[in-house]
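Hi X.,

You mentioned you wanted examples for the new student's onboarding notes, showing what a folding record looks like when two proteins sit in one file. Here is a clean example. The first protein comes first, with its sequence line followed by its C-alpha cells.
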Amino acid sequence: SSGINAEWPLRPGDLSPATVLISGEDMSKFVKNDELVEKMIDGRMERAKVQEMLMPLNREELAASQAGNPWINKTLHAIGTVEGLTKLKALCKRSGVTVGCYSFAVLFYAVAAVHIKRKGGEFPEEGVPKLYTDVVANLRSRVDPDPGDESFMLCIAEVETSEKITKETTLLETAKKISHQLKSCIEEKRFPLFAKYKEGVETGTHSEYFNSHPEGTYCEFLPSNQVGFKYPTKYSWGEMTSTHTVGSYWCPFFANQVVLYHSVNGALNYTTCCCDGDNNCKDAQEVQDLFVSVMENADRVNENTRVMDIVNF
C-alpha cells in the first residue's frame, strides 16, 4: 500500500489501498514467443547438466536447519560509506558500465576468488568452472499503467547471466559482457516470458529432470540490486540510517546465497541471506566480506584488475 510519507504512529487516512495491477504471469499473455521460450528452457536444461557449485552447501547443516519450526535463513549484513559509493559511481562512469552490471561482475569474482583461496591461493590448473546466476528484475516500472511510487507491487522476473573467468579475464571486461547479456535479454523481451519459461522448466516436459537435482544445485548466488531507498529517512522520532532485508525461506530455493544491496542516504547497505550452519554461514560471510571490500574500494580497481587481484584484495 502507499503511505510513504506517513509519520509514525500512523493515523486513519495515512494509508490507502494499492491498485491491483497486472501480474507477472499475466504479462506472458501479452508477449508471445514460443520459440524463444523453448530456447530459454533448453539453455536452463544445459546449465543443469554442466553447472558446478564452487561452494556446495553443507547438507547436514541444511537438513538440521530445515528440521526446525519455523525454519529461518541466516541474514548477514554490512553498511558501506558515502565515500565508497562515490568512488564506485566514478569508476562505473569512467568505465561505461552501470553500477548494477559492475556489482554482478564483482559477485562473480568474489565467489571465484574465495574458491581459489580455498584451493591454496594459486589459480587452479584446471581453471575455474563457469559461473551462472539469475538476475532478478522488478518489472513494475514496465507495466502499463506505471504504478509509480504510490502503490506497492512486485512484478518479478529473472534472466540468466554467466561468465567463464580465466586468469586473464578482467573485472571490467566481465561487467561489460554482463551488460551486453542483459541488453540482449531486454531486446528479446525475455523478462515478460519468465513465467512461461519457469512453468516449462518446473512442470513441463523437462520438469522430471530439472526437479531431480537436489536443493542447493540451482544457483550459487542470486544478486538483487535495489538501487536506492527513495523514501524519507528522517522522522520526528529519529532517523533511519540503514535498511536490510530478512529472507525466511529464500535459500536454497532461489539460490545458495541471496545477495541484496541498495543505497540509503548515499551509502550502500548490504544483506546476504544464506542457509544456517557454521560452514554455510562461513561461505556466505567470506563472499560478502570480499564483495563489500571491492565495492567500497573502487579506487583500487582499474582496467587490468583480474581475479587473482581480487584474491589478494
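Then the second protein repeats the pattern, sequence line and then C-alpha cells:
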Amino acid sequence: KAVVSTQSTGNHGLRLIMMTRSLLILLGILLLGDAYLYSFTAKVANRGRAGTSGDVYMTVIGTKGNLSVGKVSKKELKKGKTGRFSVYGKKNIGEIRCVRLSTTSKNSLLLDVVTVRPEYGVESFYYNTKGVILNGDPRRHSGVASLQMCKQGEEHYYITTRTSTESRSQTNKIHLRMRLTGALGTTTTGIINNEGRNDFKRGEDDTFVVPGMKMVGKIRCIELFAEGSDKWKFDYIEVHCDNYRAAYTFHNNRNIWISNDSREGEDVYKLC
C-alpha cells in the first residue's frame, strides 16, 4: 500500500506558490517596463463624519508629469485611521508637488494629511491646512468636490505646549492647527496630535513633531485654529526647528481659552 508523505506534499505546494508569485512579478515587469512604485498614507480626521463610504479618486502632481492613482479603497478612508496603499506608475513624475482628490459622492471626507514616498526617494507631506471637507455635492453640503494639497517644505518643527493647571483646562477634542509666521514666510500644520496618547492634560507638557513644513526663519508669530468645540487653556507654547535649535516661546498672558465654541473661547488666536 502506497504511503504519501504530507511533508513532501506541503513542500510541493509551497514551490508552486513561489513559482506562481515569481511569474506574476515577471509578467508585471514585462507589462509595465521601468515601473516606479509610489507608497501612500492617508490620515483621516477623528471627528464628526470624517470618514467616507463614497468613491474618492487621487491624482499626484509632479514636476515631470502627473500620476493617476485612480479610486482609493474605501477601507483606507476610515474615521480616525491612517490608510496605506501603493501604486505602480509607468514613468518617473519627478518631485511631487501636490496631491489632488476628487469625488462625486455626497458622503463627506475630512483628511488631515497625505504622505507620498517614491520607491527611491524620501517621504513628502501634504497637509489639509484649512481643514477643507471633500464632498461631491458642495451646494447642499459644506466642502469642495476637488481638493488639492501641496507640499510646503522639508523642515521638521517641534512644538511644545504647556496646558494650564486651572480647573477644566485639559482637553482631548480641541483639534488644533497652528500657523507659524517668520521672516521668510508662513507655514501651517495639520492637526497636532500624538497618536495613541492622551494629549493636553492639565499641567502637563506635550511635544509634537511636525515634518514637511516650510522653513520660515526666525519665528515672529504663531496663530492657533481650534476646530473642536471642547475648550483648552495653555500657559505657553514653544517652537523650534532643526535649523534654529533655540526655542521661541509664546506666553498666554491674556489667559485666553481656545475653543471652536464662541461661548467658551476663541477659535482663532494670534500671538506675536
